[in-house]
Automatic annotation (TrEMBL):
This is site-specific DNA-methyltransferase (cytosine-N(4)-specific). GO terms for biological process: DNA restriction-modification system; methylation. Its EC number is 2.1.1.113. It comes from Akkermansia muciniphila (strain ATCC BAA-835 / DSM 22959 / JCM 33894 / BCRC 81048 / CCUG 64013 / CIP 107961 / Muc). SUPFAM superfamilies: S-adenosyl-L-methionine-dependent methyltransferases. It catalyses: a 2'-deoxycytidine in DNA + S-adenosyl-L-methionine = an N(4)-methyl-2'-deoxycytidine in DNA + S-adenosyl-L-homocysteine + H(+). Belongs to the N(4)/N(6)-methyltransferase family. N(4) subfamily. InterPro entries: MeTrfase_CN4_CS (IPR017985), SAM-dependent_MTases_sf (IPR029063). Keywords: Methyltransferase, Restriction system, S-adenosyl-L-methionine, Transferase. GO terms for molecular function: DNA binding; site-specific DNA-methyltransferase (cytosine-N4-specific) activity. It comes from the Bacteria.
Length: 431
């Protein structure tokens, strides 16, 4: 028999706060529009309901840094981990508080001047991002950037590299550049992948247009926010404890029994590969420079997608998981040991490992807020929230409740078999 958990419908409370969209005009969070994050209200809501004042938090899947940034704003120390060099750069820049208006203004003026006199052949001094689809080649049917757009981006990258001689500001300006890359490209983020914008062939930005996109960002929201940051003196600094790398390998950086709060949203079991969605940023900012580096990065990500082969993975001892796999094999032949079933097994193996580590890091009385969503494969809904609740209990935690946050759309392949997929927040105590 399955263990049952208290289940509460919190769709009214969580409906809008689970989307990063709410952050798009919010101080610092607005520096880069991230799609897969939750809003700062989610964090504030948790802090509002906690019966104790947390002293040390952990965010294993930092993403754009919403958790450590917002906790820092509330004076709470937070260890965080992020495997993607782009997301890690974004988070540490947002956590940085060493900026001041005068230095920022000095660099903006110097970069503006540099961009008013750019080199005719920028590609001789700034290399193109790696890959076959970046610009139009002889046989190309589609390409990510028109020539003038990528040259404008290379101008900006060159100006940052040669003018901004302080690493904090160099990284800050790099994030301002990152925030216009999609706008400058022929692509848009379309759920799990990048797709071509309608009419991309004829919408061509000049080099000057690109410089202006970048300078407009610096002169508007970045200037406004740096002015506020200059006057602040935060009591904690979470940037030095925001670690780059695979949390499964690096979590030992967190001292045992120090954590009293974990807030996180791991990659969902939905085959979404974050390296794909943020590929242009990774390439243009030269954070990934070859297919080997890309493969290495993918190998270090949580096993929630099928971009790298995992080999045969056996299911962890969990009845709900075994039943889901059985249902899949009853619905469709040959589902056993496919890339998908291996990914499903590997995902929960990773979760089990993480919860066993959380149990070492937390001290008694600590709480975990774990935001996940269910998935569907071969016409079967995998109850990810309930399986993770079981895993947490098997690692010594007590599940207080599962809160339904939202209904998410299923993929087009599953939509005729499965209606909507539940997104939840699992509240877990360590007693
Ligand atoms: C759903 S996002 C987190 C969003 C975050 N809560 C926010 O508001 O920005 C999940 C993140 O986990 C990262 N990730 C995936 N595998 C990881 C791993 N093994 N270690 C650390 N981070 C990982 C992804 O790169 C992605 O940025």
């Amino acid at each position: 028999m399955y263990k049952d958990y208290k289940f509460i419908d919190c769709t009214e409370k969580y409906h809008s706060v689970m989307q990063f969209d709410k952050n798009k005009n919010v101080f610092v969070h607005r520096w880069y529009p991230f799609v897969e994050g939750y809003s700062k209200e989610f964090i504030e809501d948790i802090l509002g309901e906690l019966p104790f004042a947390p002293t040390c938090a952990l965010e294993p899947f930092c993403g754009s840094g919403t958790t450590p940034v917002e906790l820092q704003n509330h004076g709470i120390k937070c260890y965080s981990f992020e495997v993607s060099p782009f997301m890690h750069l974004l988070s540490t820049v947002k956590l940085g508080r060493k900026y001041n208006v005068d230095t920022f203004t000095y660099y903006v003026k110097a970069v503006t001047k540099k961009l008013s006199r750019t080199s005719r052949n920028i590609r001789k001094i700034e290399s193109l991002p790696f890959g076959d689809t970046i610009v139009k080649k002889e046989q190309s049917k589609k390409w990510n950037f028109h020539d003038t757009a990528i040259d404008g981006i290379l101008d900006v990258r060159h100006a940052i590299r040669t003018i901004v001689d302080n690493d904090d500001y160099k990284n800050l300006f790099t994030i301002a550049l990152a925030s216009i890359i999609i706008q400058a490209s022929n692509m848009f983020r379309n759920g799990k992948c990048l797709s071509y914008k309608k009419g991309w062939e004829t919408r061509i930005f000049s080099r000057k247009d690109i410089h202006n996109f970048f300078l407009d960002r610096l002169n508007s929201i970045f200037t406004e926010d740096i002015r506020i940051i200059s006057k602040q003196n935060p009591s904690v600094q979470n940037s030095e404890i925001c670690y780059l790398g695979d949390v499964r390998k690096n979590i030992q950086q967190v001292p045992d029994r120090e954590v009293d709060l974990i807030i996180t949203s791991p990659p969902y079991l939905n085959s979404r590969d974050y390296t794909d969605i943020y590929m242009l940023e990774l390439k243009v900012l030269q954070l990934i420079n070859s297919y080997e580096e890309l493969r290495e990065l993918r190998k270090n990500t949580l096993r929630s997608h099928v971009q790298v082969p995992y080999g045969k993975v056996f299911p962890i001892a969990n009845e709900r998981l075994k039943n889901s796999l059985l249902e899949m094999s009853n619905k469709e032949l040959n589902t056993w040991n496919t890339d998908i079933t291996n990914m499903i097994c590997a995902y929960f193996e990773d979760m089990q490992f993480l919860f066993s580590e959380f149990a070492k890091k937390m001290h008694k009385g600590g709480v975990i807020y774990f935001n996940v969503a269910n998935s569907a494969y071969y016409g079967v809904e995998v109850p990810v929230d309930y399986i993770i609740a079981d895993i947490a209990e098997s690692c010594g935690f007590k599940v207080r409740e599962i809160r339904k946050a939202r209904d998410l759309k299923t993929s087009p392949q599953q939509s005729d078999k499965i209606g909507k997929l539940r997104e939840s927040v699992i509240v877990i105590d360590y007693q």
